[in-house]
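Course assignment 3, question 2. Fill in each field.
Student: A.L.
Task: Predict the tertiary structure for the chain below.
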Amino acid sequence: MLSNGFSFNGERKDFVMTISKKRTYWPPIQRSLLDIPKVPGSRLMHSKIGVRELSIDIEVEGVSQEDLRKRAEELARWLITDEPAPLVFDDERDRTYFALVEGEFDPTELVMRGYGTIRFICPDPYKYSDIKSIRLFPNPSAIIQNVEVMGNIETYPVTRVEVQKKLNFFALVTGDDYLQIGEDAEVDQTIVDPETLVFSDNMATTTGWGQATYVDNGYIAGNIISNGSSFIPETYGTVIKPPQWQGPSVKKSISKALEDFRAEALVEIENRGSRTGMLEIYFLGSSNQTIAKIGIEDRQAVKENVIAKARIGDSDSGRWIATEEARQPEWWTNFKGMLRIQRKDKRWTVYFSPIDAKGEHTYPRGSDGSLTYFDVAGEFDEPITQVQVAFRIYPETERAGMKVNDLKIWELNKQPVNYIIYVANAGDVLEFDHYKNTIKKNGELLLGLKDFASNFFALKPGKNPVSFLPSDAGIVTVSFRERYL
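Answer field:
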């Protein structure tokens, strides 16, 4: 079994042999002292833990001088990263450093071997244990559970809550500190749902959907089918002249006319390989007029460039709220995620985000509420009564694969006097990251619901009494890495 090597960023190389390592027993500690005249010694003002440095003397082995040069390129690909990556030594497998390569690697080469020193720096100077997860149990009898931390410095946990009932608040409590979202109700307060789900379609069948008659950019042609879990375009029709965007479209009635509403669509566009496509969701009034639309598209035939868009009103007199793209195009290439639009008290807001395999919202736009328009004059306040799905491609271009996987619409309820709202429902997943100071619900950042007086507290070395309220909120798991100097 190897005992002298190391892995970096989850990889190790069989052509690299570790000769020796230099690891300090703790990172540098810098003391700031104040000299006071006529007073012996100095007064400690503050202390700072500096950047930890590690060095590894290695031998790089090739089968020829030419092969050694290729090994050098592979070594650079492996070790040079933009962000700190996990570094684990064979003789310290239960500890992880998060490190970056610093400086150059300038080996002495002898025929087919190179000898030199790799220098790592750790901006985060601590070393970490493997992730430990502890499930907290309900405590209706006020029995406090202890979470034991074995490190020699405090650490910041991640708390995950699989919600099993409606919650107007959730609190995680330890000692004299706590972290909470929402509000506990007083006896004279009413707890209300901020929204009511009025339209939900998992796209398992096209039954109930009818042929649409209008899109505001091109032609309707072809057919939409369901593959059992998604709406997909089966055909786009024969090419219509003059060429414009064309494809199938269907629509469906909403059970009631909605003024204040929120709509979310889970969609996909597979555009890698310079393929083009346009996917739009329209929200229509009683006379089939366009009240709003959201969509995602790639209009580029020579490169990948996904754009998410939102407009209120029709194509003649409407207003674009957003035409957004990722800061780096590859972030949204083969977009699979959420499109959202909301109208509340004349304020329109939109949000776009890919969603990864873990359910995390990645590279979102509009999460800070910046994609907003306030319709002061009430130009776009007509109720919505129908929803429409449209797929289109441009003739003679490579077609992007497109899907609508789910579509939901909520009515935003009018609230009574002296009320508080539910902040989570059964089936939701809450995540509290005490290190990043973030709260997420179902993978999306949750803003504005944290109790102002509560804190993202740390767990101290030793036993930490931890409990949660309400005691029947759901399955609560606290995960953390122990930290060591």
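Instructor remarks: The first helix runs from residue 65 to 79. The two ends are 28 Å apart (CA to CA).
Grade: pending
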